[in-house]
Structures are given as C-alpha cells and as structure tokens.
Design goal:
The chain is built from 14 helices and 15 strands. The protein is an alpha+beta fold. The longest helix is centred in the last third of the chain and has 33 residues.
Length: about 575
C-alpha cells in the first residue's frame, strides 16, 4: 500500500546544490554580459568623470514681455532634461538658476556634442504651405544657377498606401522659381515685379489673386526681404521672421542636396503640438533615415484638411514645408489626402534623424534660449571625494570583518564569502546598467553601495544568531541550521522590505544625484535577498555537514560551551555492597 509523502518540516534538510548552482550561473551570465558588451567599468557621473556645463539664458520675445516666469522656466528645464537623458546621456543634470538661467551638466564620455545641439533648441514645429521658392544662395557661393529658370521641378512625392500609413517624402532638388500663377491660394507663387506675395492669411479654393506691391505695403516689404535674404547668412536667417506669429506668412530657408533654398510660406495650419509621437527609422525602400510622425486626433483632422487642399495645386503650391525653429527641414509635395501618419525624409544621417525625432517627441520649449557660457568641468574634486569615500568604506568594511572574525569565528567565512558574492553581483550589474538604461555612478551612489554593506552584514548576523539560539536550546548543528532558517528568513524579508520601500520613496520624491543614492540602495537591498537565499543559506547547510562545525570546534563559532550550553546531567548509581544474608 502506497504511503503519502511527508511534507518537509522546518528541520528537514534542503538541497543546497541547486541554489548554489543557480547563483553561479547568474554570476557567469553577468560577467559574460560584460565581456560581450565590451564594458568593464561602470559609467561615471559628472562629479567623478568631469564633463561640460552649459548655462542657458532665456530671451524675451517681442509681444511676450512676461514669458520668462517660474512656470515656463520649470517646463523648459523638464523638457531639456527629457531630451538630453532620452538620448542616453547618463546622469545629465538640468536645473534652473535664478529667474532666467538653466544649467545643464553633461558627463564626459557620453553624447556631449549631440546633447549640446539639443539643449537650447526651441523645437517650434509648424507645417506651412509653400507659396514660392527659389535658390537661397547668391552668385559666387556655390549656386551654379544664380538666374532663376522659368521651369519648375516637383518638390517630392506623397504617397497614401493601402495600409493606412500616409507618408510624405521629400526628394526635392534646388529648383528656381516657377512661373507666376495663383491657383486656389491667397498669395502669389512668384516674385515678379507686378505680382508679389500677400501678407494676408486667407486660404481656400475661392481665394482671389493678391494685389500688387504698389497697393499693399506689407506685401512689398515681404518681397523685399525675400529678394535680399542670403540663406548662407545664419544671422540673417534668424532675424528675418522676428516677431512673426504662426498665423503670419514667413520667409524661411532650407537645404536640399547641399544647396540652399528660400521659401515664402503661408500661415501655419498644423503645429508641433498636433504631433503625438515621432521616431527615427530606416526607409525599407531606399535605406535612408527618415522620421515617422503620428498625429493626435485633432492633428490628424488638421493635416487631412491641409493635404486635401494642397493635392489639387500646381508645384510648388502643392508642397507643405516642415519648419523647425524657423528653418525648413523638408518640403514634400502632396498628391493625395494624408491623415494620421507622416514621414519626414531628406538628407538625414542616423544622428540628425534621431535628433529631430527626439525634439519632436518631447515638445517645444516655451522660451527661446541662447548659450551664455560653456565650461569644462574637471573630475579633480569629485575624484578626491571619491577617494575619501572609498577609504571610509574600506575602514568600515575592515571593522566589520574584524568583528565577524572575533565574534563569529568560523561563521565569518560564510559572511565574507557572501559579501564577496554580493560585491561581484553589484559591480557587474552597475557596469551593465550603464549602457542599458544610462545609469551612472556618482558620489551619492557610492555612498549607497557603502551603506549596503551594513544591510547585507545585518542579514548574516540575524541568521547566525538564530542558529545559536537553536543550539542553546540543546539541538545539534544540522537541525539548528534548518530550524533557524524560517525564523531568520521572516526577519530578513521584513528588514529588507523596509529598506527597499525607503529607497523607492526617496527615488520618487527626489531629483538629481539623490536619486543615484536611492537607486543604488534599492538595488543592493534586492541583491541582499538574492545572496542570502541562494548563497548564504545553502552554503551554511553544506558546512553544517562538516566535522569542523558538527563537532562544535571552538573556532567554528558554534561551540556549545562558548554559547553557554550546559551538558545534560547523567544519573549515576552508587555501587552497593551486596547484603549479607547473615546481616539481614
């Protein structure tokens, strides 16, 4: 008759080999990951590695005298922080200073150059209809056709695939101004002396031709700016539209195949706020980098309405310009109505495509900034503090080791081996988390790792004391090791849960370097549980089977006499003399 299996009680022996094998596999995998990634040291924060410190100053804009305020400054700092750290720049620090300055600290060894290009980029995005375009380079500056030709070239092609992914691709070349016509727009598409672009913002299929420059001073002024603008002059490009609103026509420049083009653009009909998200990808057809955009619900309706008007126009008025911070990034033509998605293409590299997608994803800055100063930060001070911290940590670790050896004797070998295992796991994880999530080791993070030594040692002490309590109650070593574990396990879990909860709250409610301390503390707390469960307890089970510990050697740390255990009293019988029958 089959008998049911007995459940393993508190004092039943465990199978330590499996747990030890598992933690060895974990350690080998982590070390192998370091070799596979080619990263053998953790990333360092700006206080330990040095880097670049950028001071941005907010500028007042015409018509917005009160734009520089605490709300806009905090919003700008948050957007810059998400942009820079979204590029994988580890431990970049962004904070406001005073009423109009933002300080950005970028650690050395990261994408410093790429990050610098984005920190002050306003990222004001608009989709504007193209009214006219011509070469933006004067004779002698690389423009082989200084005199415009009457012929027109299409500025690209828009496709509306059956899959529903609407993409507008820009393959435009540097083309001169087409002949003057006005089809379905309120402004002219050429700049002849008798037909100039209007400053009005009307749109619609029933719009009439604009008046000539002689009757419209605003149009004449716009024409004059357009004809005089040299797109190779960055200062001129920046000042040409100062004070212009999104509802005003503007003059803008853009590059295509290395040649500058200048445009007269109509009022904005779709803005950057209408973009839900964007992503840099590779076009599978031509292998070029592009930026895919997905519009919001309202943005999809606006974009569909805009492209519906443009598809029936003649070139270049069937094009819409994607304008970022006053420059034309792309100006694709439209042949069908587009709605939910759009694709920006052009002469993108991987870096430039990712830059554009990044700024579009995180939104535009509410203020305009310029670089007030750029300074190089050395790691000398941080290095001195790190050395001091490491010395303090080494002293603390040495005192812990001395205490363990003196008080726990043989059990200190278990504690030291567990500390070494925890150190290996912590180092490998910090090294791998650098390229994985951008984690950087700064001074507060080092402090968190040092504090973790005490948390880990505390777990060992709890377990060892439970074992000693069992021995004091008269049990031998092997049963004492197994019976002590359930009681010690509960205490260790509760203690580590409190530490992890404190680290999580600290990480959520703080910013900057303090988060490094909280992250490291939380990570090492989790590793403490892994080490105690998968290494310390199984190792103690194996050692409890050796003669050194089972015999209660005085250097084992489990000597019954040293623990105050009284040997059991044995009753002895007196040797009695046989009773003589005669005496009886």
């Amino acid at each position: 008759m089959a008998t049911p299996k007995k459940s393993r009680g508190a004092g039943a022996p465990s199978k330590p080999g499996r747990a030890l094998g598992l933690i060895v596999i974990i350690m080998v995998a982590l070390v192998g990951g370091m070799f596979a990634s080619g990263t053998f040291t953790p990333r360092l924060g700006i206080d330990l590695a040095g880097g670049t410190s950028i001071t941005l100053e907010a500028k007042n804009e015409p018509g917005k005298p009160n734009a520089i305020n605490k709300t806009n400054m905090d919003t700008a700092a948050d957007i810059i922080n998400r942009r820079v750290n979204g590029m994988g720049v580890s431990e970049a620090e962004v904070q406001t200073q005073g009423k109009s300055n933002i300080i950005v600290n970028i650690p050395r060894g990261t994408n410093e150059k790429q990050a610098r290009e984005q920190v002050g980029t306003t990222a004001q995005l608009y989709f504007r209809p193209v009214l006219t375009m011509t070469s933006g380079q004067p004779a002698g500056k690389g423009d082989k056709s200084a005199t415009p030709s009457p012929s027109a070239s299409t500025g690209g092609k828009a496709t509306d695939k059956a899959t529903g992914s609407d993409k507008a691709t820009d393959k435009s070349t540097a083309t001169p101004t087409p002949s003057a016509t006005t089809q379905g727009r309120a402004v002219t598409d050429s700049l002849k002396a008798d037909a100039t672009p209007s400053a009005s913002a009307k749109t619609g299929d029933d719009a009439q031709a604009t008046p000539s420059a002689s009757t419209d001073p605003a149009t004449a002024a716009l024409q004059k700016k357009f004809m005089q603008l040299d797109c190779t002059d960055k200062a001129a490009r920046t000042k040409i539209n100062e004070g212009a609103k999104s509802s005003d026509p503007i003059i803008a420049c853009g590059q295509s195949q290395g040649q500058w083009q200048k445009y007269v653009l109509g009022p904005s009909e779709v803005g950057g706020k209408d973009v839900k998200k964007s992503q840099a990808t590779i076009n599978q057809q031509n292998g070029q980098w592009v930026v895919n955009m997905e519009f919001t619900g309202t943005g999809s309706k606006k974009f569909a309405a805009t492209t519906s008007k443009l598809k029936s126009q003649q070139s270049p008025m069937n094009q819409f310009a994607i304008v970022l911070d006053g420059d034309v990034v792309s100006a694709p033509s439209v042949s069908s109505t587009l709605s939910q998605n759009a694709e920006i293409s052009g002469s993108f590299t991987q870096e430039s495509a990712q830059d554009l997608a990044n700024v579009l994803s995180y939104g535009a800055l509410p203020l305009t900034f310029h670089e007030q100063s750029v300074t190089s930060v050395t790691a000398a001070l941080g290095g001195e503090q790190l050395n001091a911290g490491l010395i303090a940590g080494a002293i603390g670790l040495a005192l812990v080791i001395i205490y363990l050896v003196v008080y726990y004797r043989g059990l200190s070998l278990v504690a030291l081996a567990s500390l070494l295992t925890s150190g290996i796991l912590t180092y490998t994880l910090m090294t791998l988390l650098g390229p994985a999530i951008g984690f950087a080791l700064n001074l507060p993070a080092v402090c968190g790792a040092i504090v973790a030594i005490g948390i880990t040692a505390d777990s060992f002490i709890v377990y060892f004391e439970r074992i000693r309590d069992e021995i004091r109650e008269g049990r031998t070593v092997r049963p004492a090791v197994e019976r002590a574990w359930p009681r010690a396990r509960r205490t260790i879990l509760v203690s580590d849960f409190v530490s992890f909860l404190a680290a999580a709250v600290l990480y959520i409610v703080t910013v900057g370097k303090v988060q490094g301390f909280a992250f490291t503390l939380g990570l090492t707390t989790l590793l403490d549980i892994v080490v105690v469960f998968l290494f310390t307890k199984p190792l103690m089970t194996l050692l409890a089977r050796t003669k050194f510990f089972t015999s209660g050697h005085k250097w084992s740390g489990l000597d019954p006499k040293r623990l105050g255990v009284q040997p059991p009293l044995r009753r002895t019988r007196r040797a009695t003399r046989p009773v003589d029958p005669k005496e009886a």
